[in-house]
Specification:
single chain, 374 residues, alpha+beta, conserved putative lor/sdh protein from methanococcus maripaludis s2 fold, six-stranded antiparallel β-barrel, four-stranded antiparallel beta sheet, 24 strands, disordered N terminus, BSH_CzcB-like, transmembrane transporter activity, signal, RND_pump_MFP, MFP_Cation_Efflux
């Protein structure tokens, strides 16, 4: 009794496995040829075409990020150093050219102004002494040594004034308006561009050295798109080529531009950077934003068929070729680019000069599938 029950169980298990395998099996066509009756041929209303040559273009899909060229990134520092007294800058803030962005104070600015004004006060005396000694030397009433000392002191004073004046200009102090009544211990930093703040590296009260970068500003007028292009696709691109870019978050919002620079060297991953300029820059595209881009590559001549002639079956693509008046054969194709209702045929050699079903191709495919399932 036990053996009978065990045998029945094994038979049931084998039957279930056999059923599962049958259900998971893909449809297999026993033949690739379909023959229609006169009535079927009339009802199908088939239309026939031949492969034809057309100019087609393909879309090269790339990705990259919003980038800023080095000349459009401005690092703000204090040439002479000092303590940060005040600033209102925050990352993302927009600035106008000439706007005060920070106030720096230090005692060295007081000393620098004092030295400049003192040197200017002495220049009149040294110049007068130089001219007096020159006149006396010409009449031999003064020795050459005394005259040369007066001349050297006068020229040294002029050099000192010029050097101190340049230091004051470097600090942002206008020497033309500097007097003993308006000596200041602080200087103002002004924005050199119209743009926005990308980095703030200091806080109020901190001492900053001349080598420290206080702020980083970005000029958005020349922000561009840097795309990564692999070696096999570089020769498809050229300067001035149009692109359409978009973000993953908003693919419907298209940004148009053109290629302005193509890299001349390849990295370890066999890729280079292609830089593109936007026709109209969108301020919502901040540096670092990842972008996708579609580039229409150059047109090429290709053999094509109408898209209606191409049928899909089991993840492959086929066409029906006329063998006789009522017989049609299913042939696999290697499709290329699809554009404007046509599909490129890469293995066109086997289809040249042959009649191919365009309208009604799926009707023939259904007939083949029905035969396979009977």
């Amino acid at each position: 009794m036990k053996y009978s029950i065990l045998s029945i169980s094994l038979l049931l298990l084998l039957a279930c496995n056999s059923k599962n395998k049958t259900e998971g099996t893909e449809t297999v066509l026993e033949t690739t040829t379909v023959t229609l009756t006169d009535a079927q041929l009339k009802n199908a209303a088939l239309e026939l075409v031949q492969v034809q040559q057309r100019s087609v273009s393909s879309i090269l899909k790339l990705n990259g990020r919003i980038d800023v060229p080095p000349q459009n990134i401005v690092s703000i520092s204090v040439p002479l150093g000092g303590y940060l007294k005040s600033t209102k800058l925050l990352p993302g803030m927009h600035l106008r050219k000439g706007e005060v962005i920070a106030i720096i104070e230090d005692q060295q600015y007081i000393q620098l102004q004092q030295d400049y004004l003192t040197a200017k006060a002495k220049i009149g005396f040294t110049e007068a002494e130089y001219l007096r000694q020159k006149e006396l030397n010409e009449s031999k009433a003064s020795s050459d040594k005394v005259y040369q000392q007066a001349e050297a002191e006068f020229r040294s004073q002029k050099i000192l004034i010029s050097a101190l004046g340049e230091k004051l200009k470097l600090a942002g102090i206008n020497t033309n308006q500097l007097t003993e009544q308006n000596i200041t211990r602080s200087i103002q930093l002004h924005s050199p561009i119209d743009g926005y703040v990308s980095k703030v590296n200091v806080n109020i009260g901190k001492y900053v050295a001349p080598t420290d970068v206080l702020f980083e500003l970005i000029n958005p007028t020349d922000i561009h798109l840097a795309l990564t292009v692999f070696e096999k696709d570089v020769n498809k691109l050229f300067i001035g080529q149009k692109i359409v870019s978009y973000t993953n978050n908003d693919p419907e919002n298209k940004h148009y531009g053109d290629i302005i620079l193509i890299g001349k060297d390849l990295g370890p991953d066999r890729s280079t950077e292609v830089h593109c300029h936007f026709d109209d820059y969108d301020k919502t595209l901040i540096p670092g934003t990842y972008m996708n881009a579609d580039v229409e590559v150059k047109n090429k001549a290709a053999w094509v068929l109408p898209e209606d002639a191409v049928v899909r079956f089991e993840n492959k693509q086929y066409v029906f070729v006329k063998k006789t008046e009522k017989t049609f054969e299913l042939l696999e194709i290697q499709p290329g680019v699809s554009e404007n209702g046509f599909t490129e045929i890469r293995n066109d050699e086997s289809l040249q000069q042959k009649q191919i079903v365009s309208k009604g191709a799926y009707t023939l495919l259904m007939s083949l599938k029905n035969k396979a399932e009977d």
